[in-house]
Amino acid sequence: MTRQKSWTAERIPDQKGRVFVVTGANSGLGLATTRALARKGAQVILAVRDEAKGRRAVAQVTAGGAGARLEVRRLDLSDPDSVRAFADRLRADGVRPDVLVNNAGVMAPPRTLTAQGQEVQFAANHLGHFAVTGLLLDLLARGDDPRVVTVTSTNHRQGRIFFDDPTGERSYAPMAYYNQSKLANAVFGRELHRRLRAAGSPVRSVLAHPGYTATHLQTAAPVGMVKFLFGRLLLPLAQTPDQGALPQLYAATAEDVRGGELYGPDGMAELRGAPRRVELAPRAADPATAARLWELSERLTGVRYALPAAA
Q: 99-102 and 19-23: which strand pairing?
């Protein structure tokens, strides 16, 4: 495996003139990603569900130095109408993004359904990112070194797609459905790469995972043992968000990144460390699973990609 030893955010190339859209940019990994990109001159659109929190995040970043080009726009990934409105406003305002970082996530809440009847983790973590990527793909294709970076987790290796019970109506376990959403992220990123390559698109689809990182993800939604384990007991072992964001920053900016690959920490069990290329779970690269998930995602979101299915 390729090892990017000692790679840090200081090695991000100059990003002046480039536009990044970062979902979930108001805290955790998204805020760390925004801060690092802004320091390198990028224009960053903070795509957030709560605009007040987004404005507070902008204040944090700009307090560290003048000149950051940051903009807050509302995006609720669990709401298809919000996703379409976000994409429509970017298009109407003439914004041409170069990189989309699909970072936002929800982890292990009690069973919750969206207004459209979808399980909230699958909706916010996967379906919303599937939709916003499809709606912005033609704009990205005209960008400078365009990329889609989708953030998954080591948990994708324990996940499976519950095609027979995607909402958890018959049986719901918070972590099992979180793992489903993270596997869906991985399957989507890999399949998007295959379809982009088949279409001859200049856009690169890349995957990243942060290892074990201390963010609000472990404390905001989980309940019971999941919250105790990840939000308290194991928290002293976790990386900071600035460290955890390195794989997605690498995937978004490094010159030698290749489409279809996954980047994560180089330490033991990929829990922490500098970014390197790591292995996807075999099921994440399974064409039959990808085709079935793609069809389901298009049907549930109403977003159809103008890309051929990969052979």
A: parallel
As a whole number of Å, the end-to-end CA separation of the chain is 26
166-199 pLDDT, tens digit per residue, is 999 999 999 999 999 999 999 999 999 999 999 9
55-70 burial by CB neighbour count: b if 16+ within 10 A, else e?
Answer: eebbeebeeeeeebeb
User: Residue 305 corresponds to which tokens in the numbers above?
Assistant: 């990609």
Q: Six-digit token pair at 34?
A: 């925004």
The whole-angstrom separation of Cα 248 and Cα 244 is 8
DSSP annotation of 157: G
DSSP single-letter state for residue 61:
H
Q: What is the pTM of this model?
A: 0.93
Query: Among 178, 212, 250, 263, which one carries the catalytic annotation?
Result: 178
DSSP annotation of 54 reads H
- For residue 236, the one-letter residue type is P
**How far apart are alpha carbons 49 and 260 in whole angstroms?**
28
Token digits for 208?
């990243």
CA distance linking residue 31 with residue 96, whole number of Å: 21
Q: CA 215, CA 144: separation in Å to the nearest integer? A: 31
* 178 flagged as catalytic: yes
Q: Any idea which residue has 């998954």 for tokens? A: 152
Distance, in Å, from the CA atom of 99 to the CA atom of 140, rounded to the nearest integer, reads 7
Task: Return d(Cα 70, Cα 82) in angstroms, integer.
Answer: 20
Give the model confidence (pLDDT) of 197-218 as tens digits. Answer: 999 999 999 999 999 987 666 5
Report all structural domains of the chain as residue ranges with CATH numbers, in order of start. 13-301 (3.40.50.720)
